Every structure is written in structure tokens, then in C-alpha cells.
């Protein structure tokens, strides 16, 4: 899709995207902007929709991963499995920002959007629930294995795990963090400014190896399925382990202290 009112721009970009196996749609700029908001708001809604259900299903004894896997098999109504998997809160530089922007626009225009407002509330509940579970454990040292908002990136902007770390530290927990791709010296721009405002002592909190973070930790909060992380968890199982993704594998899930976030 190309958003422009200039015919020359439309022609140039249509030619540029000619390799795509579908027609290029030319729309006005406002339509293109609105579509971006619509897409990201829907993605955010899907994350919270799934997580909200998983919080209930866990209490009812249902495996939310199986439920949502079957849910996504219905392709007749064009349901995409993207984001429709129980897990932790959404974050990053797009979904939270665009959702807040859309809600701000709604307030400015006097439009009520309770579903999207509720999406942010549900996202907040996911973080609060993990904090509450940690507080209920008999441990004061926490290993946080995975910090960026998604694996294989060092993007920490609006990462719910950064928020989680900040809250746990604020409650007096000793938090040790390992992320295989996060190196403070390499962070730049808005990414660096964000984490400095939330975790100014990140370099002191980070460990060089996952085993170092796990050493003497009574509870591990795991979102990274990096092989080094899984190996360390299996070699040194913590008394309590909270899985934020449901993708750590059967060996980890069979550990005595394991519990899933919504399953």
C-alpha cells in the first residue's frame, strides 16, 4: 500500500514494489496512517485477548496453549495465529505507542473506545500478576532471563520485562538479568535513553552467563529460549520458575518448580 496524493510518487513506488505478488494499492495519506494504527491496535488487542483468556483458563484447569492452537485452526474466518498465543505482555516501539496514540485521538474527538483502553489494562495486569507471584514466593533473589521485548533483538523500548525488573527492584528484590544480545555499551538513541530512565544501573544488573544469574536465585523468570539459557536452567533448576512464553520445551516444563504464566 502507498499513501500519497502525488501521482508521480504513486507511480514511482508502484514500480518499486512491482516485485510483490499482489497489486499495489494507492490511497491517501490519512488512510495509510489510519491503517497502520488499525493494524497495530488489532495486534495489541490479540495479545491481550489471548492473555486475558489464558489467565482465566489456567484457573479453570484448561491448557490455554491447546485451546488457542485449536482456535487458530479455524481459517474460514481468516484468523491468523500471529499473536494469538498465551504469553507475557506486549511491548516494543509500535504496539504500545500506536495504541496510546489512538486512544489519545479518541479522547480528543470525544469517542469512547473501551476495548482498546481495556487492552492496555489487561497488558498491565500481566506484569502485575508476575510481580504478585514473585512476592508470594519465599525468595528475594530473582534471575530474569530475557530482557528485550522479543528474542534476538536488543530493543528495550517499552519492553514489559524492563518494567517488570524496575518494579521488582522497587519492591526490594535482588534482580540479576541475563539476555544474550543486550550489551549496554552498544545501545544507542531512544533505546538507550529508555533503559537509562527505567534501569539506570543496568550494567551492574546484567550477568555475562545465565548460570551466573541463576546462582543462589530462588526464582527465575524466563522468556528467552536461547540454548544457553535452557541448558543453564536444566543444570541449575531454581526452586521456582515462571515461564513467560510457553516455548521453553518439555524438559524445562517438567522441572518441579515450573509454572506457566497462563497455562
Descriptive account of the structure:
- By secondary structure, the chain is an alpha/beta fold.
- The protein has 2 domains: 2-120, N-(1-d-carboxylethyl)-l-norvaline Dehydrogenase, domain 2; 137-260, Rossmann fold, CATH 3.40.50.720.
- The protein has 11 helices and 7 strands.
- The strands form 2 sheets. The protein has a 5-stranded parallel beta sheet with strand order 4-3-5-6-7. The protein has a two-stranded parallel sheet with strand order 1-2.
- Helix 2 packs across helix 4 (95-109) and helix 2 (29-60) packs across helix 5.
- The longest helix is centred in the first third of the chain and has 32 residues, at 29-60.
- The two termini are 39 Å apart.
- The mean pLDDT is 93.
Share in β-strands: 5-15%
Low-confidence stretches: none
Rg over CA atoms: 21 Å
What would the CATH topology of the largest domain be?
Rossmann fold
Strand order of the largest sheet: 4-3-5-6-7
Distance between the termini: 39 Å
User: Based on DSSP secondary structure assignment, what is the total number of beta strands?
Assistant: 7
How many independent structural domains? Answer: 2
CATH superfamily of the largest domain: NAD(P)-binding Rossmann-like Domain
Helix/strand structural class: alpha/beta
Tally of helical runs: 11
Overall geometry: globular
The CATH class designation of the largest domain is Alpha Beta
Order of helices and strands: EHEHHHHEHEHHHEHEHE
Average pLDDT, rounded to a whole number, is: 93
CATH architectural type of the largest domain = 3-Layer(aba) Sandwich
Relative helix content: 40-55%
Largest sheet entry: 5 strands, parallel
Amino acid at each position: 500500500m502507498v499513501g500519497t496524493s502525488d501521482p508521480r510518487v504513486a507511480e514511482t513506488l508502484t514500480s518499486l514494489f512491482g516485485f510483490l505478488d499482489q497489486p499495489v494499492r494507492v490511497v491517501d495519506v490519512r488512510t495509510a496512517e489510519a491503517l497502520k494504527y488499525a493494524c497495530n491496535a488489532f495486534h495489541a488487542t490479540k495479545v491481550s485477548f489471548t492473555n486475558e483468556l489464558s489467565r482465566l483458563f489456567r484457573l479453570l484447569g484448561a491448557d490455554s496453549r491447546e485451546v488457542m492452537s485449536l482456535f487458530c485452526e479455524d481459517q474460514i474466518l481468516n484468523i491468523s495465529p500471529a499473536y494469538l498465543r498465551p504469553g507475557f505482555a506486549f511491548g516494543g516501539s509500535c504496539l504500545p505507542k500506536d495504541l496510546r496514540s489512538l486512544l489519545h485521538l479518541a479522547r480528543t474527538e470525544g469517542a469512547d473506545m473501551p476495548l482498546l483502553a481495556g487492552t492496555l489494562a489487561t497488558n498491565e495486569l500481566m506484569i502485575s500478576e508476575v510481580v504478585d507471584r514473585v512476592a508470594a514466593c519465599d525468595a528475594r533473589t530473582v534471575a530474569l532471563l530475557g530482557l528485550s521485548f522479543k528474542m534476538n533483538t536488543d530493543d528495550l523500548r517499552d519492553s514489559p520485562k524492563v518494567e517488570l525488573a524496575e518494579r521488582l527492584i522497587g519492591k526490594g528484590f535482588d534482580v540479576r538479568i541475563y539476555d544474550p544480545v543486550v550489551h549496554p555499551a552498544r545501545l544507542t538513541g531512544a533505546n538507550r535513553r529508555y533503559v537509562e530512565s527505567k534501569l539506570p544501573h543496568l550494567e551492574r544488573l546484567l550477568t555475562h552467563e545465565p548460570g551466573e544469574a541463576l546462582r543462589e536465585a530462588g526464582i527465575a523468570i524466563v522468556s528467552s529460549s536461547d540454548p544457553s539459557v535452557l541448558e543453564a536452567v536444566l543444570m541449575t533448576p531454581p526452586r521456582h520458575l515462571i515461564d513467560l512464553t510457553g516455548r521453553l520445551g518439555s524438559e524445562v516444563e517438567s522441572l518441579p518448580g515450573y509454572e506457566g504464566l497462563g497455562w
